[in-house]
Design a protein that fits this description.
The longest helix has 22 residues. The model has no long low-confidence stretch (mean pLDDT 95). The two termini are 28 Å apart. Helix 1 packs antiparallel against helix 4, helix 5 crosses helix 6 and helix 6 packs parallel to helix 7. Helices cover 48% and strands 14% of the residues. The protein has a 5-stranded mixed sheet with strand order 5-4-3-6-7. It contains 8 helices and 7 strands. The chain is an alpha+beta fold and 250 residues long.
């Protein structure tokens, strides 16, 4: 049973999480530093996500899974005019392109090595997480971080394990099996080996490490927004720390 919301809901979640980021930015000082992205100001964060959304709007519209858009096709992705209005337009462009393409339309994506689909639906799924984590970043810059909504976070764990970690290549440490347990109920198993990260492996052997927390905290741990100490770890804690450092997605 998949945790991934239906395609129309994914589009609504992109809009909702982007609006949460925009609201946080509107309420804060755009020069404030972002703890989750320490080299960025809040202004940089908004500009980054807006540029990302415009990139994927073009990519999905091309309906070509063989290569990313060229520099010319990408166009100007720098903010112009009012930053938050530009960002709102970025979200609209992305959602409009996704809706026009439909979930099964081919699309280039950076995760080909993971075996995940190269489709507009997979892009929408990841863009929910991109918007959600950066909305958390913006809220944290204000000193008012909020947990990721459950509908976002539960699928976020599954998406990160299969797509994000599945794209990283060989695990550089001793092989390990890790279980993630969300307080909301779902659990996931991950095998780490020289072959890479395998989510949902065949049942054989007990995990050496079990990581338990809310689905939101599990996502934020994987994206390196919170430390290992903020979740419960049973078994080999060094594996949890190694996994957090290995997961370099922003």
């Amino acid at each position: 049973m998949t945790s991934t919301p239906p395609f129309p809901e994914l589009l609504s979640l992109i809009v909702g999480r982007s609006a949460a980021l925009r609201d946080a930015a509107a309420a804060g000082d755009l020069t404030a530093r972002v703890p989750g992205c320490p080299d960025w100001s809040l202004r940089d964060l908004v500009a980054h996500l807006g540029a990302v959304q415009r990139f994927w709007a073009v990519t999905v519209s091309l309906a070509d899974d063989s290569a990313p858009p060229s520099v010319e096709q990408r166009g100007d992705r720098e903010p112009h005019g009012d930053l938050l209005e530009w960002f709102e337009e970025s979200t609209r462009l992305l959602v409009t392109a996704l809706r026009a393409a439909g979930p099964d339309s081919p699309s280039w994506a950076w995760w080909a090595g993971s075996g995940a689909p190269l489709t507009a639906g997979a892009v929408a799924r990841h863009q929910v997480q991109e918007a959600a984590v950066h909305a958390f970043d913006a809220q944290e810059a204000l000193g008012k971080p909020e947990p990721l909504p459950a509908a976002v976070a539960v699928d976020g764990v599954a998406e990160f394990l299969s797509v994000g970690l599945g794209s990283l290549g060989a695990w550089p440490h001793r092989p390990a099996r890790v279980q993630f347990q969300a307080i909301e109920g779902p659990s996931w198993t991950l095998d780490l080996s020289p072959s890479g990260a395998t989510a949902g492996p065949a049942a054989s052997g007990e995990p050496v490490t079990r990581i338990r927390g809310t689905a939101s905290d599990l996502v934020l741990l994987l994206y390196r927004r919170i430390p290992v100490e903020d979740v419960r770890v049973d078994g080999d804690r060094s594996v949890a720390q190694q996994l957090r450092e290995w997961s370099k997605m922003d």
